[in-house]
Amino acid sequence: MIITFLRLVDEAISLYTFLILVNSALSWVPLGRLGMMSGIAAAINAICEPFVGLFRRIIPTFGGIDFSPFVAILALMALRRILTAILLPTVY
Question: Which regions span the lipid bilayer (predicted)?
Fold first, then answer.
């Protein structure tokens, strides 16, 4: 049961990490005329912005580069490690 939960959380964190990466890549692409793609980009941004925005408010940009997606991904990786360290020993 706990292993199933860990796998589910791991997959959710992986998906969210991927969405943050896609959102960061799409921020470099002008999507004004692409209709459907701009809608998809807006949906991905709406999903990612609440979490990445937490770090964006804390971390300043350096030379016009926003490091908040990178820090958000690091936080997700740390969360994955912490949950695994806490829950996995209870299985064995």
Answer: 12-29, 35-55, 67-88
In this predicted structure, the answer to whether residue 35 has a pLDDT above a threshold of 70 is no
| Token pair 């209870």 in the structure block, residue | 90
Cα separation, 62 vs 16, in Å, equals 24
Of residues 11 and 91, the one with the higher pLDDT is 11
Write out the H or E segment, with its range, that includes residue 82. helix 68-87
What pLDDT does 91 receive? 62
Within 10 Å of residue 20's Cβ, how many Cβ atoms?
A: 22
Backbone conformation region of residue 66, classed left if phi is above 0, alpha if psi is from -120 to 50, else beta:
beta
Q: Tell me the one-letter amino acid at 87.
A: L
Mean pLDDT across 47-62? 94
- Domain span including residue 13: 2-90
